[in-house]
Specification:
The chain has helices at about 1-20, 25-40, 40-50, 55-65, 70-85, 90-105, 120-135, 165-175; strands at about 105-115, 135-145, 150-155, 160-165. The chain is of the alpha+beta class and about 180 residues long. It has 2 domains: about 1-105, N-terminal domain of the delta subunit of the F1F0-ATP synthase (Peroxidase, domain 1, Orthogonal Bundle); about 105-175, no CATH class. Strands 2-1-3-4 form a 4-stranded mixed beta sheet, with helices on both faces.
Length: about 180
């Protein structure tokens, strides 16, 4: 809980700084990159959270990883976070920044879960359907989950459409368990 509050505050302050510096779009791109690095490399996040490793070593590693890949504003901000010993929250700050950016720019994320993935024609059709329901910009996120067996689940904000085979099978199981027929002897 504490990490989320800290991340939200640091993300908000970075959004304000990026707006002040006219670098919001670049900061958004940079934070998406940082979030991807943190999500793809668990060891990196563990390294950042280690209390044993000194701040100067962490700064050197961060410089090696992100040198030339981040804007000056983002690079300075990451150094500031490290100097303040808040690098343990870098992944959460990046995630929170992305969420606050999307909220500020009225961008919705539509999460499509399928068993095997979707092709371009289905992707376009899903985007048309979702854009028809909302006036906001929509970003499509695809998730593959073999447990749904087939069909799809679309979630936009707090609304969800579950047309998965797994849900239909569970529904059938429940209806058979409620057997309304009385056995005759």
């Amino acid at each position: 809980m504490e990490g989320t509050r800290v991340a939200a505050r640091y993300a908000k302050s970075f959004i304000d700084l990026a707006i002040e510096q006219n670098a919001l779009e670049q900061a958004y791109t940079d934070m998406k990159y940082i979030a991807e690095v943190c999500a793809s490399t668990h060891e990196f996040v563990t390294f950042l959270k280690s209390p044993i490793i000194k701040t100067d070593k962490k700064q050197a590693v961060l410089k090696q990883i992100f040198e030339g890949k981040l804007s000056k504003v983002t690079d300075a901000y990451v150094r500031l976070i490290t100097e303040k010993r808040r690098e343990i929250y870098l992944a959460e700050i990046a995630h929170e920044f992305i969420e606050q950016y999307k909220e500020k720019n009225k961008i919705l994320t539509a999460v499509v879960t399928t068993a095997n993935g979707i092709d371009d024609t289905i992707r376009k059709k899903v985007m048309e359907i979702v854009k028809g329901v909302t006036t906001s910009e929509v970003v499509l996120q695809e998730v593959i989950d073999k447990d749904i067996i087939g069909g799809f689940i679309i979630r936009v904000g707090d609304k969800q459409v579950d047309a998965s085979i797994a849900r239909k099978l569970n529904s059938l199981k429940r209806s058979f368990a409620e057997n309304p027929f009385i056995k005759e002897f």
